[in-house]
Amino acid sequence: MAFRPRKRAESQMPSIGYWPSSTEKKLLGFAGYKAGMTHITWIDDTESPNKGNEVFASATVIECPPITVYGIRGYKRGQVKGDILADDERVLRKIGMKKKKPSGFSASDVDDVFALCFTSPSLAGFGKKTPERMEIAVGGKDVSEKLDYLRSLLGKEVKASDVFKAGEFADAISVTKGKGWQGTVKRFGTAVQRRKATGKRRHIGSLGAWHPGYVQYTVPMAGQMGYHKRTELNKRIMKIGAPSEINPKGGFPHYGVIKNEYLLVKGSIGGPVKRLIRLRKAVRKAGLAKAPEIRHVSLESKQ
User: How far is CA 115 from the centre of its chain?
Assistant: First the structure.
């Protein structure tokens, strides 16, 4: 099925359906806002022919205000068993919730537990005020250890540096730029026909074989392009640092000045600036994180 159906994403806050397993007591994901791109030079430490040489690469800057853990959700056989919310009503008030009657549970009642978190876009300062709410998996040897760890985080803020390390690989889940209704040439890369073919150039030449007697879903057709949920695997986190190190002259176009901790991720990530980017511990990459030796980060004006 690849990327079908190519329809609009259900929400700008993408859901994550699979999490890696980990025995380390920490959150297995984080979220930030795409600020823009820059370029870096670094000493290649991979097994490529350029190993040991200084190489040039593009990099995406993600601003990561701290996220707040406001609750714990327990699951039993894939069904929600109950929630444990923070006692501090000031935390719940930020997302418009009131303290409910506790529907608590113990470790023996559930198969797995997740952290209920919300972001702090108002700290970023690019104009957004409404926080996004999400579930994030947590690592641990068993459910009891996970639950005890999450209880210690209830009502507290977690930083990106508490979850990720420089040099680590992560998966980026985001909603791409929307491009509206597009034809087959732009949407699927079909060939432009010669001028005298049928009087039309940018349409599809055939809608398929004679049989079956209907148009199959695999035939390239015009339709929605962009604004799709996409997961990019194995994006390397090159650096985690303070905002003073990354802000270019005049700030990032259409975003502004970074005011919080940031992640510098090698390569591009889907979505426009200001969009939420969810990061997850890499599910297909193992090994210890080794911080790369970065020689230069461009702070030239992007205006």
Answer: 17
Of residues 133, 109, 105, 129, the one with CA closest to residue 119: 133
**Spatial CA neighbour of 280 closest among 197, 185, 163:** 163
Residue 106 confidence (pLDDT) above 90: no
Average pLDDT in the chain:
93
Task: Name the pTM for this structure.
Answer: 0.93
Q: Are 40 and 297 in contact (CB under 8 A)?
A: yes
Distance from C-alpha of 66 to C-alpha of 131, rounded to nearest angstrom: 11
Nearest to 64 by CA among 226, 249, 246: 246
Contact 224, 6 (CB under 8 A): yes
Summarised one tens digit per residue, pLDDT across range 16-61 is: 999 999 999 999 999 999 999 999 999 999 889 999 999 999 999 9
| pLDDT top residue among 1 and 195 | 195
Largest CA distance in the chain: 73
Per-residue pLDDT, averaged over 97-112, amounts to: 82
Domains and CATH numbers, the chain: 1-64+163-192+219-303 (2.40.30.10), 66-158 (3.30.1430.10)
**pLDDT single digits (tens) 211-254:** 999 999 999 999 999 999 999 999 999 999 998 899 999 999 99
